[in-house]
Structure formats: C-alpha cells, structure tokens
Structures
1.
Amino acid sequence: MEAVSGRYFDGKTSRAHRVSLSVSDGVARLEGDVVRQASLSTMRVSERTRHAARKVTFDDGAYFEADEGDAIQQLLDASGHRDSGVVLAQQSWKLALGAMALTVLLLGLAYRFGLPAFASGVARMLPLSVEQQMGEGVLELLDKRLLAPSKLSAERQQQIAAAFAALRQPHEDRQPYRLLFRRSRLGPNAFALPSGDIILTDEMVKLLDNDRAVAGVLAHELGHLHERHMSRRLIQTSAVAAVTTLLFGDASGFIASLPAVALDMHYSRDAETEADDYAARMLRHNGRSLADLEAVFLALDKVEKENAVSIPYLNSHPPSAERLQRVRHLAPAP
Amino acid sequence: MFNEATAAAPAPVETREEITFSATGGEYFRIWIVNLLLTIVTLGIYSAWAKVRRNQYFYSSTRLAGSSFEYHGNPVAILKGRLIALVLFGVYNVAFRYSLAAGLVMMAVFAAVMPWLLWRSLQFSLYNSSYRGIRFGFDGSARQAYLAFLGMPVLTVISLGLLTPYAHYRLKKFQHTQARYGASQFGFDARVGGFYKIYLAALGFFILTVILTAIITMVMMGLALWLIPGAEPERIGALSTIGGMLLGYPMGIACTWLIMAKLQNLVWNHTVLDAHRFQSGMRWGRLAFIYATNTLAIIFTLGLFTPFAKIRAMKYRLESISLQAHGNLDQVTAQNAGDVNATGEGMADFLGVDLSM
C-alpha cells in the first residue's frame, strides 16, 4: 500500500510537519519531518466522509491530517479498519433513504396515535386548578375583546339552562359545567373553556330558534369538556411545535412554526367529531331525536354558504354538511 | 499555504487566507436523517451524540490555510447539560401555571443562573474546538459574564432600548477579547459607533417597510372598492391587509438579515489574533437571497431541503471570512486548561442561543 501524504501536528504548537503515513500489520508509521509509530488500534480514526478532512490521532492528542480523502480511505480499508454501523448508514444513500422512510413512518404513527393518547393522559392528570386558571384567563380576554353581556331576558336564560340541565348525561362521571350567556361580534357561536364554562351567544339562540336544537349545541360543548379537548389541544400543539422545531429549527424558526399550525387543524377536526358523537349519545340517552342535532348543522350550513369562503381541509371545523351526513349515519335512536 | 519548517524567515509576509467549507448538502442530508431517526428511536437521548457527529462534520469541513478544524465535545457531558436544561425549563414553565409568585421566583432564579450558564457554554464550545492541534479557550471571568449577559440587558430596558447597540457592542467585546487560540489572545477594536450605525440603518429600513406596507394596503383597498362595485368593504379590507402583510412580513425578515450581515462584517473586520487580522465581506443582498430561497425550498420539499439549506447558509457565512495572516501560523503554542463542563452548552442549545458569530 502506498504511503499517504499529509501533515502532522504535535498538539503543543500550531506548526505543521510534512509527513507521510503508511500502515502495515496494524502499525501506523509516520515518516518525513517527524518519525513516529503506534498501533492503529490505539489511535482514534476520524469517521469516514467524502468531503471533510480525515484525521488519525495518537493517544496524546497529536494527529495526522491527510492531504487527500480518497488516498487515506484506501489505506484504511486495506489496513482492516472498519467504521461503525451508524457511519456506514450515513455514507450510503440507500440506508439513509431507508432511515428517512422509517422516520416518516414513526412520526406519522406518533402523530396519529401516540400523541393523542399521550395528550389525553396528561390532560386527565392536570389538576383542576390549572385548567380553571387557563379558562379564566381566556374568558377575561374574550369579554374584553369579542363578547358583550347577553340581551336575552333573565327568564329566557333560565328557561334554556333548565331545559339543558334536565337532560341526563350519557356517562357515569358527571361532567360539571357552568352556562354563560353572551352577545358576540362573531355571529352565532358556542364554545367550551377548560374551566368548565360553556359560552352560548344570543346569535346562536336566535339562529336556531328551537330550544331542543340549542340543547344539542350545549351537549356538543359538554362533549368538548368531557373529552378535555382544550387542554389536550394545548398539550398536542406544544408537543408538535417541539418536534417541528427539532426537525426544521436548524433552518428557520418561522418555517418550524408552519407545520404546527396545519397539523393542529387536523386534531381540531377530530375533536369536533368526538364532541358530535358525545352530543348524539346524550340526545339518544334522553330519548331525543338526532333531528335536534341535524337542525343545528342545517342552520350552520346555511350560514356557511352565505359567507362562502372556507377551505375544506384547512378549516378547524369540518363543514356542517359533512357533520350532518355523519350524524345521519349514526344508528337511529331506539 | 504556509511554509512549513521555515528557515530563518526575514520580514514577515502578509498573506490572505480564505476560509473554505467543503461540506455538501447531500452528505449532510444523510448524516442528518440517520441522526434524526436515532434521536426519535431513543426518545431524544441520542441527540447529544447527533450533535457531536454533526459538529465533527462541520468542523472538519472547515479549512483555513489548508488545515481543518476539529470538534472535541463529549456527548455524555452534552447529554447531562441538556437534561439539566430540560428540568430547569420544565420547572420554569410549570411554576407560572401554579402561581404568579412561584413564576416570578423562578424567573429571578433563571435570570441569576442564565449568565453563568452562557459563560460556561462559551468556555465549553471554545475549549472543545481546535485548529492545527491547538485548542481554543475562553478566559472571561464570571463577573464579566454577569455584566455582559445580565447587567447590559437590564441597562437596555432601563434606557428604553436606546442602549441596545451599546449592550451588543459590550457583549461582542467580551466574547472576542476573552477568547484565545492556544496561548494567543484574540483582540477586538471595533467602536460602539459602528453598532449604532447598523441599528439605525435597520430602524430606517423597518420604518420604510411599515410605510410601504401601509401605502400598498391602502392602494389595494381603493382599487378593489373602485373595480368591484358593491363589494363588502369589510371583506376587501381584510383581504388587502393580508396582501399588505404578504409584502411586509418578508421585508421584516429581510431586516433581520440586514442586521446579521452588517454585524458579522463589523465584528470580524475588527477582530485580531496576535498580528493576524480577520476580514469579513458578507453582502446582505446575497445573504437575503440565500435565506429567502432556502425558506421557499424547505416549504416546497416539506422540510427535506433543511440540511441542504443549512449547508448553503453556513458555506456563505463562513467563506465570507478570511484571515490576513502576518507571517506564518506556526508559532502558536498550546495552553493547558482545566476541565470544562457542558451544562451551559446544553442550556444554550436548548434555548436556541447562538453564540457562534
């Protein structure tokens, strides 16, 4: 095997010594400005690479740096030196692309199954006081920005609350809640906060004009509370953000935040479907017809069509027509 | 190239040595994806080893005057640092959820610990870098670190931001005068005025961005209202605002690139090592072009371009720096330094603090 030219640095001064390296019977030999030898097995050989410099380091930190990568690779191959499996995978396109496929598969599985299970576990462990605080903060903000006191009369509010309270919940563990009435700048709406508050807007009551349908809406929101959707979503969003930062943070923080937004939409649609199912169960449990829920979706669908600017996938709610279809396919009430 | 084994050199010769960066996107892609898989499979533990592999690749691809750099970081030390950072960060986040008082106490603890960690991080990363077999080092004391990392930011807040360029100047001065290469000390002779100039230019650019965005938004709104009779003004307003933001946001980002390029030039053009001077000729238009096209490419490849983008940006940033060598580089001697732990390094990593430039 031909000797490989390069430089030797002794670790004491920055001076470069011209030398050549040869290996025979497992012993590395330097000749030239400096003469030195050691068993190759006691030396640290830098990992195989095509474009970076290659070094062979003595146990005292002095090292040989090859002038040319190909030559030293041939010398090392002939000497019987072998790189670790990780390094070999990193130098092979085939193995690297295999690693990529495996990574995508693992991330997909974690996103679809692992993370939701993890988030729901953590959400159930969260102390109530924490959720209470999160919810109160949000309500305060909404009251300042988007909501105003309700214009419905006290009797009317009482009537709606009593009608809903009369319904039995479908699960053994009773989900506590507090019903609040507000006027909104966002039109017909209802939402649940982690603190257990359900906010119902006057506009929604007016739009539905049917107290049984209003109870359907409230049952849907109770479903969000029961499944702890808000807390789960917060946990999932932070986890997704952490992973995408790990993946793309190298290049730019802005890019890293994009997938987190898109991926969150998907979870949010799942949550709506779960809440619909809960509402359907609750109505059935009380011998009500699913038509109450259908009335809600029909009314919302009409509003959506009037304001037609929604992109089906990138929407946090599934389109009402789709939800209507789903509920219709659920088995009819006994 | 430096003349080795110089025989009684007469007057020292000035030579210009460019930094070259030979890493390629393709090779780094393979390193990146394998590291990523192992990190996921080991639930993050491998990330410390991944960091060492990555840095070893970057350092040994960086050459100055024919010789490459080397990274010596110990993955176990880095892992310990990351775990401590994770715990601190977790406690910090939870504290605020429980009570405001607990949160404030943690914030104070954080502010008190942070400068120490950043200081350690500087020591660790420099001590674990070498060139021609000689390690770099960092001498700055803890007291100076607290002044630079805590005192200066506090001063910035008190002065309502007016002293930001001064604080930045002090930080760079601290970093670049306390660093060593073996027994040779780095020096820094920039003046604070240079920092103020850059910040003022950035401020001007920012104001221009805001004005332009506002004008274009209004023109779009006016045109739309004129061309589409009967359109709802509210919707047109919303769409025009989005249009304006599509212009304003990239310009805002371009502003940070402007600062980045000008600062790198200012800092490195005023950095010396013994009698050798550094030079940096980064052009911000080129930098902005690289970052903007990288961003688009990453989006359109669903992230697969990330490692290529990293190499492309690093190559430009590194290769715009050169060394004006006075005589040869053979005379630097090593200096022994005690062991340096990696807690700070792990912490700075975790918080995304980039102390390298």
Note: Chain A touches chain B through 56 residues (CB under 8 Å).
2.
Amino acid sequence: MTAPHLSLEKIRKAFGGKDVLDDVSLNVETGELLAILGPSGCGKSTLLRVVAGLLRADRGTVRIAGREMNSVPPRDRGIGFVFQDYALFPKMTVRDNIAFGLRVRGVPPGDRIRKTSEMLELVSLAEEADQSVETLSGGQRQRVALARALAVSPSLLLLDEPLSALDIKVRERLRREIAAVQKKVGITTLIVTHDQEEAMELGNRIAVMNEGRFEQVASPRDVYQVPATEFVAKFIGEVNVLPGQFYRGSAYAGNLAIRMEGNGIPFHGGTVKVLLRPEDVTLLPPGIAEAGQTHANVMSVSWLGAHLRVEMSTEEGYPLTALFQRSHAMADRLSAGDTVRVAALRGTVLPDPLGAKEPEYFL
Amino acid sequence: MSRSLDMDSLVRGATFAAALGLFFLLILLPLASLNQYAVREGFAVFRDRLRSPDAIAALRLTGLVALAATAVNAVIGTAMAFLLVRHRFPGRKAINALVDIPLAIPTVVTGFALLLMYGPLGPVGKFLGERNIQLMFSFPGLLLGHVFVTFPFMVRAVGAVLESVPRSAEDAARTLGAKEWQVFAFVTIPAIREGIVAGTFLTFSRSLGEFGASIMVSGNLVGRTQTGPLYIFSRFNTGDVEGAAAIAILLALASFLILLLLQLVQSPTARRTA
C-alpha cells in the first residue's frame, strides 16, 4: 500500500483557551476526494486552513506527499485553495485571475497563456475570459476560483464550503461539475461542508467532525448505515434514538427487536442505544404482535410527495418516526389515531454507559 | 391621499430650497465677493498681485508643504489604518479615538503644543538646538504641523475601505504562490486604492488651507515660512485687500478643482464595489 498523500497527526489548535481542534488525525489517499462534514463551528474550516498553512497549529504534524509542512509557507505547499466567498481579485479579468498564480511564480508568458487557456476550457469559461469577474454570476465566480486554484498544478485541492454561498439549483449543478473536474484532473481533494448531501455525493469517504474531533471517517454508505456515534446518526439524515437492551445477541427497544447492521458488536449485554432510520421502520396492519414486533399509536401522517412520514408513539411510550413509500399498501388508509404493528428492518446499536441498568420494557 | 402627498412634496421642496439658499448665502456669495475684490482695481492689478515675489514664494511653499504632508501621511496614515483595522491589541480603542484629535482641537492649539515641545524653549527643541537643528520657524516645523493636522484624513479614508476588504483574497494569493510583498502590491493595494486616493486628495486639500498651526510654528517669515493662507492674513491686516483676495481666489479654486477631481476619479463602479 502506498503512503497517504495527506497525513495529519494529532493536530491541536486553540483560540482564546478553547480547543478548536482536539488532536485530529487523518490520512487522505492519493486521488481520493474526502469530505469533512460537520456543523458550523466544529473546527472543519480551521483544520483546512491549518493544512493550507494559513493558520499555524499549536501542535501536531501536517505531511503532504510525505514531506513535513509545519514550517512551510502556503505558497510552497503545492496546494490549491477555493474559498466560500470565492476570494477573486475584483479588479482583474477572468483570465488575469486564473493566471495570477502562474504570474507570481514567474512562469514564462508562453506557458502561462497555454495553461490559462487550458483552465478556461476546463471550467467552460473561455467566452468570459476577458470580462471583469464582477460581471459574473456566483456559480461562474466559483468556477473561476476553481480554475485559478488548479492553474498552478497543485497536488492537493482544498475546498472550503465552496458551494454554500450559492442558491440551491446552481449548487447542485456546480457540485457535479466539481466532481467531474476532480475526476478528470485526478487530484487529491479535501472538501469542507456542512451539507450532508454534498458530502455524500462528492466524498469517496466522509469525515464527520464535531467539536474539534472526528466522530467517524468512513464511506458515505457506512456513515449512514453504521454510524459510529449518535451525533453521526443524527447529523446525517434522520434517526430514531431509542433506549434498548442487548440480550443474547439481539437488541430490543421494548418489544421491538433490532436486526443489527454490521458485524462485531463490541459488547455482550446491558443497556444500549438503538438507532433506527425512519425508512427502516416497517408498518403492518393491526393484529397480534409477533415476536420482535410492537404496537404503536399513529400521532400524525404527513405527505412529503414520494414519501409519507408517520409520527407514532409505541406502546412502551417511545416516540417513533417512520418514512415509507407512497405505494405502500397502508398509505391511503392511515390516519392519526390508528393503531399499527411496527417492526424494524435493521438498525445500529451503540453502548449507552449512562442508560438505565435494569430493563424497563422487556419480555 | 393626494393632499398628503402634495404636503409631502411641499415640505420636501421647501427643505431643498432652504438647503440651496443657505449654500448660496454661506458658500457661493462669499466666494463671489472674493472674486469681486480680487479684480476690483482691474485685472492688471490682480495679475500684478499674483506676480509679487512674496505671493509666489507663499504659493510655492503652500504647494510644497501640502505635497510633503500628503506623502508622509500616505505612508504613516495608511500604516495606522492597517494597525487599527487589522490588529487587535490593548489600547486600540484609545488610539482609535486619539487619531481624530486633530479634528477636534483648534489647530492653533496644535501649533502651540508643537511650539512648546519642539520650540527653542521646549525639551526636544532645546536638545536639537544645542546641535544646531532648528525645527520650528522652518520648513520641517511647518511640515510637522501639517502632518499632525491632516493625519485623520488618510487614516479614516483608508480604514473605511480596508474594513470592507475581505482577507480571503490575500489568503488566496498566498496559496497561489505570492510572496508577502506580492500579496501587498497586487492584492491589498489595489483593493484599498480608492481609500488611498480619497485620503490623498482630502489631505492635500486640507493642507492647502491650513492656518492655525502654521501661524504658530512657522513664525510667519515673509518669503521663507509664510504659506498662502498666512500671506492672505498678513496682506489683509496691512490693508492690501486686493492682494489678499487674489491669492485667496487662487487657493479656493485649487481646493475646488482637487475636490472636483476626487469626485471624478471615484467612478460609479468604484463606489459600488466599496
């Protein structure tokens, strides 16, 4: 296995006595696109600035292509950086913005012109080349910023919330463009975002960050299906969190039995937290509950277009949200006040050291 | 409803009329009478007054001091703006307030204070005097007074623009390979250019008209340390109204042209982005 292209070791950074980055470590493989996902203020942008050298970490090591970068200025790190507010040079044309890095690095005019034209083609802005960047739309500006960052042929591309200043339609289109450009150039990329959909769509892997630490670094599938912490489960998508018991290889939230996702449950019994995605809750017509099923009272039914969302209260008293297809057999009949049977398709179980010692609802 | 609209437009019309009227009475009429006195004795006399060696020396000195004060403040005023906007340090608020002091205290007081400090009897003046350096009653003293009095203009003009300039463009330049001087020259300076231009024009124009501090620190030595405004004052005091008015007209015109030029260089697009 080759060495990671970017390697972070125990990065620590504090502002005014408060830890913003708390011993963060991360490896990013060559050519990989890794998304750092987290709420605002979790430290993700700070981490990106430390990688870029725009901020100095209090402790820890940044390595790019095996070389230690701690005392290397941003200009010598071989990085491209794209900012949330585009950070274009306002009084320059599109072409001059893209050529800036080549110019300050003293690239000869011939190479400079060729490379700049190549970049203009890459982001489809050849026609706007000689316009002032102030005449461009937000989406176009961010494409200029991307081309400008790539023009100096960096080995590592850093994107700091590149789409969050754009409106939703432009955002989705540009997201695909970024993915396409990244693939074409094949550059190792780190993108910071608070948008889970963006992270899921772009990232080969997602690093979920909270309060200056990584909660989980895994594939989009795994962070959704096998969240490592309650925070990850709640931050990515919707989730029911139920108090549960682990007993003889199965988890139960009240009478509801949970088939576990993933393997290797690191504990053998006791109080746990059951994480259940709304789409993994199955609704059945009322009747005698079979083993592992429970009854619930429907509180509300909302139509969300292709899906229905049902808020319930189980007979054990837990609030439970289910999401199911419009084509479901019960979709048209269901209304508030109905009693239904509930089963769980699959779920995740986390240890709950603070949970009750004795089972409250257990058969 | 149309009645109240009519009332509104009436009130608005009256306010505008009052503003224009006061502008006319307080600014245009006095300037016009200046003009009248300047050419009262005929155009030949006006030209003659302008050509007097003392007048030419005074105008030259005024221009030189204004240029020098502007150059000095363009550098230290801009530096102070960076310090106040870009850095957080203890005492920043106090310094921020002190910057405007020259606007708040009478310029004569400024001149007086400089005289006490750097004059022959002042501590610094005495020290320098023993080494045969005389600050007061000379060009350096005059320059000192003008730099002090015009200091806030540059700081405020640059500071206002600097506050609206995001740091990310400079960071972008750093990641693109720019060295610190390149960041400053190619990104920071162009971004605050409007502020520097505005500050330069205001400083220069304010310096042209400086009187209070000048009369204290210059000694008002005819042909040597007498600036335009001091010349006007002296001429008027000796009864030469035409001579005073001739130079006054010239200085007023110069100030007007400078401010007009400032309006013109601050193009609509430049102001929109600021």
Note: Residues 269-274 of chain B have pLDDT under 50 and may be disordered.
